[in-house]
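tool=predict chain=A
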Amino acid sequence: FNSRARKIAETLLELEIKTLLPIDDYSSVLYSYLLPPGVSYGELHGFLKTHGFVIYQGQGDLSETIFRISTMGEISNEKIKELCNLFKEFFRSRK
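tool=predict ok
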């Protein structure tokens, strides 16, 4: 569980976005989160993509209920902070 993934997880949990599995069961680079009721994957993906970030859709039966985030590669702490702020903006505007 790397520090980038931890920061994202802490931010999303603060926003009451739950993980699909217990955090201890995740790899260090790919996490799955449940979409809250009334929020579509397409809506979240589109918002983040317009700001330069890409998330991944769940597969199969999970395609409409989860989104996935990978923290592989060289990602600066500034980019993680920017992503977390975008999550706050998006999810807080939908409550």
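The two ends are 29 Å apart (CA to CA). Strands lie at 30-34, 56-57, 66-70.
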